[in-house]
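If your schedule permits, I should be very grateful for your opinion on a structural question. I would ask you to consider whether the tokens describe a fold that such a sequence might reasonably adopt. Thank you for your consideration; the sequence and its tokens are set out here.
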Amino acid sequence: MDYSRIENVVNVPTLQEKRVTVFGAGASIGLIEDLVRSGVRRFLIIDFDRVGAENMARQGHDSADIGQFKADAAKAKIMEINPEAEVEILTLDLTKVPEDVAATYVAGTDIFVAATDSFACQALVNRLSLMLNVPVVSVGIYAGGTGGEAVWTDPIHKLPCFRCLCANRYAAHEQQLLTAPNVSLDPSSQGADIFSVRLIDAIAGQLVLGLLTQGAANRYGRLIEQLGDRQFIQLSMSPEFALNGRDIVREKLQVPEGNEAYVTWNSIALADPDRGQLPCLDCEQIRRHKFELVDGHYVRRIPGQRDSGTSPDAVVGGTVS
């Protein structure tokens, strides 16, 4: 492939040596294809589901793919773009096997992409990330397709994990298991059209490139440093976007009502969406982080690291009410 038109913004030689593991090969097909076009050529694609006719309207699958495993269909599309790509597939539900076994399947990867609406799978990917010190980009579309999120984590830099950033989500799922275990809180794909999918995937793809080429002297090499600890990106994709009745994008951007320039397609990047990152079980169990209550706030203690006051690596300001 000829990368001459993009080599000034992304470190293609570095990408060609990286291995990307993608959990979910449905709506992520466009993202996978674009990563191939950007220079990634080593993949592990994990999906136990098969392509159905309903997938054609909102995913990048074709009629010839119907009945195939989505992972097989994804591999074929990768090889069509770059015949020199190295692609492994796994048609297994890793949430059904022990964590240590799941870890052996995904060992040797450089980044995880959690492109699934399954909370159980996203939770597993977070734990695997901490176990193997692998960064993650998690992608999600909100109900109705009016908004979405792309969340990046990088345990090597001791930043908060996905569970830290989504503490309220974890609590809701845990409560649901206790009160109505047969009812899923996973968002429905109803209304999540292909344009909404492609919008959030474009952001996720840039995060993947940024994480894989950190430190390079170009735009993507600087991206993660520029984001700092702002790991939770949310995007409005419709003038009707609202979460719990609130347009949180407008609120965070402090756009007043009546501003005619504000409609939609705006994003925010948050460092602490759940306001506190209260003690995280995954960080305690896997990273051996400690959470101490100090003056009504939780403080994260990282083994071997001196408390640096307000550093996001050392202190997490969770207020106890």
